[in-house]
Amino acid sequence: MFWRKGNYLELFRKAGKKKEFPAGHELDITRYSAVVLESGICSLGTVTPDGDERAFLYFKKGNIMGFIRHLLPESEFPESHIYKSRIRIRTMTDATLYILDRRALRQLLEEHPETYADITGALAQNMSNMLEHASLFTCENAPVRICAMLVEFSEYREGRWILPQCFTQNEMANFLSLHKITVAKVIKALRQEGFIDRSRRNIELLDKASLEMVVQRELSLRY
């Protein structure tokens, strides 16, 4: 996956209203026409009537979210599309957002046509990330999937690669279409190999190069 910041984010910030939400807050995408993530991590996914959740995309600082349904009229979508789906955006950490309503987004696009470049870029980014995500859990084994996620989502902090606490083993299992027991076994094997360590609730990458070798199938992992 890749993370692309927009070229005209300052215009989106000026057009929107700054709001802060705690972790676990569901954004009402029926009300918001566009959302710029200023800080934190959000997920795009589904929830079943039984409460089962699955994420398909994650958003980081600088990403634009929640705009598709407000750029196209409802009449252009089939009956089963997003207007009646269970798709939702949820904050995985405490998050700061700039929120634009329909009027603010329309005015921004009319006054600054160059901002369409950011919308187009966000669409391309999301499509690319979803295709990569689908191919990952369709074609790769559990160690490859998990190591790819560890490498992709870890953040460099004070000389260490740390996986944000929101990426729990349950979250990883749901995102990668794996059983949580399988995730636990692979994480245990990675610790035994000395590739990662766990301090409190954080996973630290001790040997990022070896994890990347697992992803590239240059190194196999028994679990």
Instruction: List SSEs in N-to-C order.
Output: HEEEEEEHEEHHHEEHHEEH
Choose one word for the global shape. Answer: elongated
Terminal Cα span: 26 Å
Largest sheet: 4 strands, antiparallel
- Give me the side-by-side strand order of the main sheet: 1-8-3-6
Number of strands: 12
Q: Which range best describes the helical content: under 10%, 10-25%, 25-40%, 40-55%, 55-70% or over 70%?
A: 25-40%
Q: Give me the Rg, rounded.
A: 19 Å
Spans of at least 5 consecutive residues whose pLDDT stays below 50 are: none
Structural class estimated from helices and strands: alpha+beta
Residue-averaged pLDDT, rounded? 88
Strand content: 15-25%
Q: What is the overall number of helices? A: 8
Describe it.
The protein has 223 residues and is α+β, with helices and mostly antiparallel strands. Helices cover 39% and strands 24% of the residues. The strands form 3 sheets. It has a 4-stranded antiparallel sheet with strand order 1-8-3-6. It has a 4-stranded antiparallel sheet with strand order 2-7-4-5. It starts with 8 loop residues before the first helix and ends in an 8-residue tail after the last helix.
Which features characterize this protein?
single chain, alpha+beta, four-stranded antiparallel β-sheet, 39% helix, elongated
List the helices and strands and how they pair.
Layout: H1 9-15, E1 17-21, E2 26-27, E3 34-39, E4 42-47, E5 53-59, E6 64-65, H2 68-71, E7 87-91, E8 95-100, H3 102-111, H4 116-139, H5 142-153, E9 155-157, E10 160-163, H6 169-176, H7 180-192, E11 196-199, E12 202-205, H8 208-215
Helix pairs in contact: 5-8, 6-7
